[in-house]
TrEMBL record:
The name this protein goes by in its record: Antigenic cell wall galactomannoprotein
Keyword annotations: Signal
InterPro entries: Cell_wall_mannoprotein_1
Species assigned in the record: Canariomyces notabilis
Superkingdom field: Eukaryota
Signal peptide boundaries: 1-18
Transmembrane segments: none
GO cellular component entries: extracellular region
Xref: Pfam families: HsbA
């Protein structure tokens, strides 16, 4: 086999990977912010002052999800290799969303004590809508045959938010 026959596919792969990284990068950022929020709530002493970083990180989360939607909307359609990378990043995000929202659900008594549960509920609603929009934007770039699978992959994110919203609903 000629060397060029190997090099050409490798070059293709590198280009493919480079193009896929915009959505992957956005998902990693959302994962990061989600994890930070979970850590802040987990370490929260229940004071009003301690709410400040939590509120800030809630805003960061919303902003990073909206940014992720924009990134996905601007993206070219993904090839299968790129879609698999995105799927990996999405399944990592599924785990951090589950973990962070579990922490928030468990902290509800602390939010109640400061009358901050309605604010938390409002944030959860905004974040859920934004996450749904980001998922829709990303799925639209996945090859048609894999869109059903992609949807099932991110459904737990919607479910986690719904569980948290139901918990905080008066
Ligand atoms: C992830 O979060 C940490 C802590 O806030 C920050 O220092 C880091 O730059 C973030 N990384 C990415 C890729 O966003
Ligand atoms: C997290 O995942 C576990 C296991 O699938 C599930 O039982 C639980 O309801 C999830 N919690 C949230 C907040 O999504």
């Amino acid at each position: 086999m000629k060397l060029s026959a190997i090099l050409v596919p490798l070059t293709f792969l590198r280009i493919a990977v480079a193009e896929g990284t915009a959505i992957v990068g956005a998902l990693k950022e959302v994962h990061n912010v989600t994890t930070n929020l979970g850590n802040s709530v987990a370490n929260w002493d229940g004071s009003m002052l301690g709410m400040v970083p939590i509120l800030t990180e809630n805003t960061f989360l919303l902003v990073s999800v909206i940014k992720g939607t924009k990134t996905a909307e601007k993206s070219e359609p993904l090839n299968l290799g790129q879609a698999i990378e995105v799927a990996n990043a999405a399944s990592t995000l599924v785990k951090s969303v589950n973990s962070t929202l579990s922490i928030i659900i468990n902290a509800k008594p602390k939010f109640d004590k400061l009358s901050m549960s309605p604010v938390t509920l409002a944030n959860l609603g905004l974040q859920k809508n934004a996450a749904d929009e980001m998922s829709t934007a990303i799925i639209s770039k996945v090859p048609a045959d894999y869109q059903g699978f992609a949807r099932s992959l991110v459904t737990p994110i919607t479910n986690s938010f719904q569980l948290a919203i139901d918990t905080f609903h008066p």
